[in-house]
Design a protein that fits this description.
Pfam families: CW_binding_2 (PF04122). This protein is an alpha+beta fold. It has 13 helices and 45 strands.
């Protein structure tokens, strides 16, 4: 017997549990699917099922991309009552798994990393230490040394059977992972032609009663059988090896699982999902059946095994490890066909959420399910971070539950519920309303109006708004369009000029602010223009003078649609023009809307604030009778013929045929028909402003 090694235990639960539920929650479903968006989320989904939502004390971290080290971990994980969580080589591609561990592993819990720093680097280990966990690593210079460290930490008793599997190919070892884990048997990895010294040492010390060689002679040569027998003369040595991975597996299944109550289906060409599920299968003393997702039929040897156990009276629960890419739906259909089951779901339990507040939400189920607790509900914020559910109570036999959680007004959350390992309905998203929300109505017209909210609230529709006449009759709202991330909504309705209306808004049963009343004005035929934009404001000219306008009559938006404060408005000519003061940014585009008496004046006008004129200079070069080049001191892209004015010495305008730039607006090539010996003057403007002083130049006569 070897000296008892001190085991550092580790385990974890999972971030995401996504199921396909077939059948009602009262009856045994035909299959369960455990999967996530990728192999990391699939491993946490499986861990969630293993732990049933409870905090765990231990977790095993294994590589999601390097199978040899990971394959040794299944028996250790079961011994430690730990889930296997897959990670990448660095923190960047492991964050999903690490976030799950932080949410589900109890404070001060144990993490065992499988593999050396070349497989899972030190930054992952440092992150775990910083998070307050006890971390140990089982990793050597190569896969065989790592395997030796793991099996020696199992501390199996003398005579315990062992499994010899290939260290170069994963399918054979993967097929026995759940068997080894459930029975506590070490998996010893070997090359095809020579046993590692660590394997020789292990079997010599422990003298196993049985040695199971997994794989054909091409994978584990017969000479190794002779070597093993010489090291353990009393051991019974058996080989399970077929023409391919599936036939090898079927031999193992027939021997060790003649009458299973559950089976697990996994991709036979990618080890990740099957490895993650090996401890769950071991927990239920169930085999993992590998399939070929690229085919359209079950492997013949796997199909024969299923028919054999069916004929002995077995009708096992079918479980699936991974999504429909790894295990397509046709696989489930064919398995259920063998057992005479239907994989058609009659429907999941509907789940709805109502009455969101800063202290929780109400969840309704149909039909009712009594006895749910906080562990049956998962709550995520908009960043995907788990929010603690502190309580779940029902007063009507499970038809509705009051879910307690600390939530934030204005924030969006997603709630999922599970029962008996099955997802109930579909995930529900909701936003907690702000109770001090206020609403304002602007730009009323005969076709509708705009509603502004004091804080953004996404996803409102016609059902959230009620519009009434002054006599109290409802007015149909025909459309609602959101803008600015939920800060403003455009409401479409057939309204009458001169009539007064009242709008109420509600969300999740709450009234949003005080109902505002507004009057639709008579149509006002006014237009306006914009000139001299600068970083301190613009000038607005009206088609007919309108005195008395103030900042409230002007709405200024940036190119992203956000409001820009108008700080002051002045007129010196009785309302024919207005100077609008606002803090604007050079090079940015803005939109100005003017309203009066509730009516929009003309159409909204867009303008761009030019860069500082005083800081811009222009130079003219490469003069010829066909044109010239203009250089700008700072690049200004997008100029065209309309931005350049060319005059001859008599002040007559010369036609500019084309304008082009090849360096982002630092230099422009101007094409025009010019005369040798003549003097010309060039002026450049942008957004209504001259860029630097005009430049004069002479076209020299050719020598």
């Amino acid at each position: 017997m070897k000296k008892k090694a001190k085991l550092t235990t580790a385990a974890v639960t999972s971030t995401l549990l996504i199921f396909t539920m077939v059948g009602s929650v009262q009856a045994k479903p035909n299959y369960h699917r455990f999967f996530g968006h990728d192999r990391f989320q699939t491993s946490t989904a499986i861990a969630q099922q293993e732990s049933q939502g409870k905090q765990m004390q231990n977790v095993i971290l294994a590589s999601a991309y390097s199978f040899p080290d990971a394959l040794s971990a299944s028996t250790l994980a079961t011994k430690l009552n730990a889930s296997i969580i897959l990670v990448g080589s660095d923190i960047n591609d492991s964050q999903t798994s690490l976030d799950y561990i932080q949410s589900h592993l109890e404070a001060g819990g144990n993490v065992t990393i499988i593999g050396g720093t070349g497989i899972i680097n030190k930054r992952v280990e440092q992150w775990l230490h910083k998070a307050g966990y006890h971390v140990s690593r089982m990793g050597g210079l190569d896969r065989y040394i790592t395997n030796s460290i793991i099996v020696n930490n199992l501390n199996v008793s003398t005579g315990t059977p062992v499994i010899i599997a290939s260290g170069d190919e994963f399918p054979d070892a993967l097929g026995v992972a759940s068997l080894a884990a459930s029975k506590g048997w070490p998996i010893l990895l070997s090359g095809p032609n020579q046993l590692p010294e660590s394997v020789k040492d292990f079997v010599t010390k422990d003298q196993p009663t049985s040695i199971y060689i997994i794989g054909g002679k091409a994978v584990i040569n017969d000479t190794l059988t002779t070597t093993l027998q010489s090291l353990v003369p009393s051991a019974q040595i058996q080989r399970y090896g077929g023409v391919d991975r599936f036939e090898t597996l079927s031999q193992i299944l027939t021997k060790f699982y003649p009458n299973p109550t559950q089976i697990y289906l996994a991709n036979g060409y990618d080890y990740a999902d099957a490895l993650s599920g090996s401890t769950l299968a071991a927990q239920n003393n169930a085999p993992i059946l590998l399939i070929d997702p690229r085919s359209k039929q079950l492997p013949p040897s796997i199909r024969d095994y299923l028919i054999t156990i069916r004929n002995t009276g077995s009708n096992p629960q079918v479980n699936v490890l991974g999504g429909s890419v790894g295990v397509p739906d046709w696989v489930i259909d064919q398995v259920n066909e063998i057992f005479g089951n239907s994989a058609t779901s009659p429907g999941a339990v509907p789940l709805t959420v109502s009455n969101p507040s800063t202290t929780g939400v109400t969840v309704s189920l149909s039909p009712a399910i009594n006895g749910l607790t906080a562990s049956n509900f998962t709550l995520l914020n908009s960043s995907g971070t788990s929010i603690a559910v502190t309580g779940a109570t029902t007063s009507n036999g499970g038809a509705t539950y009051s879910i307690s959680a600390a939530l934030t007004a204005g924030q969006t959350y997603t709630l999922t519920a599970n029962y008996g390992g099955n997802a109930l309905g579909t995930a529900q998203s909701f936003t907690v309303p702000s109770f001090n929300q206020t609403i304002v109505v602007t730009s009323p017209s005969t076709t509708g109006f705009t509603v502004g909210l004091s804080s953004a609230l996404n996803g409102l529709s016609t059902s959230n708004f009620t519009l009434q006449t002054s006599a109290g009759y409802n007015v149909p709202i025909t459309g609602v369009t959101m803008a600015n991330g939920g800060l403003t909504y455009t409401i479409n309705a057939a309204l009458s000029a001169g009539q007064t209306y009242t709008l109420t808004a509600n969300y999740a049963g709450y009234s949003l602010g005080t109902a505002p009343s507004f009057t639709v004005p008579s149509i006002y035929s006014q237009t306006f223009t914009i000139s001299t934009p600068s970083t301190i404001g613009v000038t607005v000219g009206l088609s007919s003078a309108l005195n008395g306008l103030t900042t409230s009559n002007f709405i200024l938006l940036n190119s992203a649609g956000y409001s820009v404060p108008v700080t002051s408005v002045t007129t010196l000519n009785g309302g024919a023009t207005y100077s609008i003061n606002a803090a604007l940014t050079a090079g940015q585009t803005y939109t100005l809307t003017v309203n009066y008496g509730g009516s929009v004046l003309g159409t909204a006008q867009r303008f761009t604030v030019p860069y500082s004129i005083t800081s811009e200079t222009i130079t003219v070069s490469n003069l010829s009778t066909t044109g010239f080049k203009v250089g700008l001191s700072s690049a200004l892209n997008g100029l065209s013929t309309s931005n350049f004015t060319l005059l001859n010495s008599l002040g007559n305008q010369i036609t500019i045929n084309s304008v082009s730039t090849s360096d982002g607006g630092s230099t422009y090539t101007i094409s025009a028909a010019l005369n040798a010996g003549q003097t010309y003057t060039l002026m450049v403007n942008y957004a209504g402003n001259n860029l630097a002083p005009a430049q004069s130049f002479v076209i020299l006569a050719a020598n």
